[in-house]
Amino acid sequence: MPADINTQWFRARLAEHKLSQRRLADMLDMDPAALSLMLRGKRTMKMHEAVELARLLGVPLAELIVQTGVEKGMPTGDIAVAGWLDHHGEVHFEPELGTIARPHGLPTDITAVQCRTAGSDLDYMDGWLLFVDRPSEPPNGDHLGRLCLVRLSGSVVYLAQLRRGYASGRWNLAGPVAHATDVLVDWAAPILTIKT
Questions:
Q1: Interatomic CA distance for residues 161 and 178, integer angstroms
Q2: Is the pLDDT of residue 48 over 70?
Q3: What's the CATH architecture for 78-195?
Q4: How many CB atoms lie within 10 A of CB 51?
Q5: Mean pLDDT, rounded, of the chain
Q6: 7-68: CATH topology
Q7: Backbone phi and psi for residue 48, each to the nearest 5 degrees, phi listed first
Q8: Is the separation of the CB atoms in 5 and 69 below 8 Å?
Q9: Cis upstream peptide for 107 (omega within 30°)
Q10: Is the per-residue pLDDT at 18 higher than 60?
Q11: Which of 22, 45, 86, 149 has the lowest CB atom count within 10 Å?
């Protein structure tokens, strides 16, 4: 079913950034025809494409999602706060942390992680909410360069950006605190948006 996309809004954002559709397709590592179909509502925009497109156009993800027409008919409701992030960038999953209103336009099957980093080097993140997509086991190329929750072999979960490792199936991690080289990763769950 075609999306009710606001094509004029996308054209205006491209003009603001002096970008052609072809150049934007190159920046998204996407076939220009696929981008054209997506911007006309004939091809479904994937969440990771929306996140990257919002970054490139310099707009909030929620605004971009509204302009794609996805928000119309999206269910509302609460999502679980599944855990909290400490001053080491490590995530602790706990039941009973409550729920929070799901931001408009985000999928229903996401969770949230609260940053509890007061008085540390990550104090600027204290109170932030990270809205997290489902994990992928194992991570794949779609996770490259993205900020994710990452579970290392051994069950420790960190907030980190995934980069290619030096051997097949291995990853390098860069994050607010967690840095690791050539490690095995059990799963990665992309951060879809952050509420500061």
A1: 9
A2: yes
A3: Ribbon (2.10)
A4: 20
A5: 83
A6: 434 Repressor (Amino-terminal Domain) (1.10.260)
A7: -65, -30
A8: yes
A9: no
A10: yes
A11: 22
Q: Where along the chain do the CATH 2.10.109 domains lie?
A: 78-195
Tokens at 102, concatenated: 């799901």
Token pair for residue 16?
Answer: 């603001």
**Residues 22, 27, 33, 35: is their CA dihedral positive or negative?**
negative
**List of residues 6+ apart from 89 with CB closer than 8 A:** 122, 158, 159, 160, 175, 176, 177, 178
Phi, psi of 51 (to 5 degrees): -60, -45
Rounded CA separation 54/111 (Å): 21
Residue pLDDT, tens place only, 137-180:
888 888 888 889 999 877 789 899 989 889 888 888 888 766 78
State the residue for tokens 């603001």: 16
Extended beta strands in the chain, E state: 78-85, 90-93, 99-101, 111-115, 129-132, 147-152, 157-164, 171-174, 180-183, 185-195
Q: Whole-model pTM above 0.70?
A: no
Q: What is the mean pLDDT of residues 85-89?
A: 89
Residue 63 CA to residue 66 CA, distance in Å, equals 5
